[in-house]
Amino acid sequence: MKNIQIGNTDIYTSQVALGCMRMADLSSNQATKVIETSFEAGINFFDHAEIYGHGKSEELFCQALKASSIRREDLILQSKFGILETHYDSSATNIYKSLEGILQRLGTDYLDILLIHRPDPLMEVEEVAEAFNSLQKQGKVRYFGVSNHNSSQIALLNQYLATPIQVNQIQFGPGHTLPIDSGLYVNTRFDQAVNRDGYSIEESQLQNVRLQAWSPLKSSLSKGLLKDDPEHVQMVNTIQDLADQYQVSFEAMVLAWILRHPVAFQPIIGSMNPIRIKAMVEGSLIHLSRKEWYDIYSSRQDYPMQ
Ligand SMILES: NC(=O)c1ccc[n+]([C@@H]2O[C@H](COP(=O)([O-])OP(=O)(O)OC[C@H]3O[C@@H](n4cnc5c(N)ncnc54)[C@H](OP(=O)(O)O)[C@@H]3O)[C@@H](O)[C@H]2O)c1
């Protein structure tokens, strides 16, 4: 698998990452198998959040990694903070507390990348920057990023941070194309031209922020898997036909479609099934033609361009 650089950092890592949101549901042996299979398939980037399994996913990952032959220093570990049971909290007190918990559960004395999980309307940007700068100085966090933020929110943080934001994790996949739709429909009256969240993929490129695509196989958070979505039957058939032509799984073809975009998304795949993970990674070896990429995109039910 190809290696990619994260933003302007010295981190060169796998093009595909494994998301550990559902690791808490596994036994320790199953988690070890998932980590080992991913690593053998070329994945050395693992995405966490303190909220995943209420900390259990991070804890289990640590146990499972210890039982494997893989060394922590050969991995890039990312986690997120800020979503509490009843509210979001980006206060300095919570940043320090969350980071200590993350490090303890992951059994490491440094985190490669720490993300703000979601924008907090009560964020005091100078306070966040002071905490981030201090954690970086202490060597506890190498770099910082965000998730589900728009470009202005990133620019604001960058005004105060010693080292700018390097990552933005957003939902993207053939079942969820919002990040690219408004760019395609510029100056039209189609609903897709509406940029409702101020997010701009071009701004991310200008800021050299590495975009990560969460839930690549989903239609939307509430709707579940794209392949089971009755609203996207035509698109699912197009993806499956191409998958058959390339002799890969449906999920691998979804990955190939995401990776074909020049912004070079890092997909965060969420499977906890070693067979599926291995098959999916085959998608990173496929370079779709422009026509094939558009065949998938334009088979969306809501694609009005002719
Ligand atoms: N930043 C954010 O706000 C945010 C939000 C959501 C997620 N994330 C991150 O993104 C990662 C991936 O999210 P995700 O898990 O939703 O991603 P996903 O890769 O789109 O979906 C994975 C899920 O789909 C199931 N699946 C895949 N193919 C299947 C098939 N053919 N038949 C049945 N089930 C199938 C997997 O089950 P198996 O385990 O059985 O394969 C797994 O439960 C998370 O782990 C997390 O790190 C971030």
TrEMBL record:
Coiled-coil portions: none
Residue ranges of every copy of the NADP-dependent oxidoreductase domain listed in the record: 17-296
Domain of life of the native organism: Bacteria
Pfam families xrefs: Aldo_ket_red
Record PANTHER family: NADH-SPECIFIC METHYLGLYOXAL REDUCTASE-RELATED (PTHR43364), OXIDOREDUCTASE YDHF (PTHR43364:SF1)
Protein name stated in the entry: Aldo/keto reductase
